[in-house]
Amino acid sequence: MQQNALPGKQEPYFLGSGEGQRYLLGPFLATIIGRKQDTGSLMEGVVLIGAKNSVMPLHRHNHSHEAIYVLEGSAILRLADQEFALEGGDYASVPPGTAHGLTFTSHRTRILTWTFGDNGAAMYAALGQPSEAVTYSTRAEPPDWKKPLPGVDVEFLFDESSARTRGEKCSVAPPGVELYVIPAGEGERMMAGDTLFTFLTDGRQSGGKFIVLMTDGPKGQRIPNHLHEKHTETFFCLNGCVSMTAGEEHVSLWPGDFLHVPAGTPHTFQLTGNNTRFIQFHAPGLNEPFFRYMCDPTEEHTFLQPPPPFRFDRVIQQLAELDVKFL
């Protein structure tokens, strides 16, 4: 397994916190953790850290659907006529063609962003300067946001309106493909034994391109070894520790660590830290039925101890229709 470097082909790889390809864009540092060539053209991922008052101009991706998760700090998500105040743990889904920009409103704001459908995230490498630094510089020259970027799915817009209304966040995602923001801790929550799963995006909001799922749980048993034949899974640790095996290699994911598990890769994991949390991006969104069979809807915002019954029998009954093969 490739470790702490992007492989350049579709295979399992691990990146420790802060690792990846880093580019300075003035007061931003973009760390690329997934490119089209690494993920089989399914998705591209970036961790973006920046200074307070840093501004990403209004832009749109005509073919890329962007998912944004605030890791820490705060920011304003600007649209053509609305704006949303984002805080740590908030999530935004930005469909293709939606004009949007970001203004960081706290020091060392850090966001995780994934794009699906094209190469919208390639703009960071195209505009930035390669860097060995692991944080931004307030003294760096800003990029030329008006620089032509042929072959990159981004269009910058410079006629921003000064009149915007405050957007309303929603506790669960809407039933179709549209822009929405979910505040920290909200989303469609489901319980399976001692683990809380929260859908931030399912197939309805992405047109089946991807799903985004938060997982919360205590130390627990190892998940049986399995593989998916038709979709890729990624794991980004937010809290605690996840012990993972992909193929024949073992890694431990601590906060900020990332693992890419492409289709066909045997893998298993175990939560080995108390109050472990990780966010997953699956592409395409074929694994949604697995969680819906395994889980029961809940109004809880944390996992339960003692836990309710674990209904894995429902998964076994439906294995023929699921993209999972237990080994």
Fold topology:
Blueprint: E1 2-3, E2 13-15, E3 21-25, E4 28-34, H1 36-39, E5 43-50, E6 55-60, E7 65-72, E8 74-79, E9 82-87, E10 91-94, E11 100-104, E12 109-116, H2 123-127, E13 129-130, E14 155-156, E15 165-166, E16 180-182, E17 188-192, E18 195-201, H3 203-206, E19 211-217, E20 226-227, E21 232-239, E22 242-246, E23 249-253, E24 258-261, E25 267-271, E26 276-283, H4 288-294, E27 296-297, H5 313-317, E28 325-326
Parallel strand pairs: 1-2, 9-15
Antiparallel strand pairs: 2-24, 3-4, 3-13, 4-5, 5-12, 6-11, 6-14, 7-10, 7-12, 8-9, 8-11, 10-16, 17-18, 17-27, 18-19, 19-26, 20-28, 21-24, 21-26, 22-23, 22-25
Explain the overall architecture:
With 327 residues, the chain is mostly beta strands. It has two domains: 2-181, Jelly Rolls, CATH 2.60.120.10; 187-326, Jelly Rolls. The protein contains five helices and 28 strands. A nine-stranded mixed beta sheet has the order 1-2-24-21-26-19-18-17-27. Strands 13-3-4-5-12-7-10-16 form an eight-stranded antiparallel beta sheet. The protein is globular and about 55 Å long.
Count of alpha/pi helices: 5
Q: Quick one: biggest sheet? A: 9 strands, mixed
Instruction: Give me the count of strands.
Output: 28
Q: How many discrete structural domains?
A: 2
| C-alpha geometry | globular
- Based on CA atoms alone, the radius of gyration comes out at 19 Å
Q: Could you report the average pLDDT, rounded to the nearest whole number?
A: 96
Which residue ranges are poorly predicted, with pLDDT under 50 across at least 5 consecutive positions?
A: none
Q: Remind me, CATH topology of the largest domain?
A: Jelly Rolls
**What proportion of the residues form beta strands (DSSP E)?**
35-45%
Strand order of the largest sheet: 1-2-24-21-26-19-18-17-27
What's the name of the CATH homologous superfamily of the largest domain? Jelly Rolls
Q: What is the CATH class of the largest domain?
A: Mainly Beta
DSSP helix fraction:
under 10%
CATH architecture of the largest domain: Sandwich
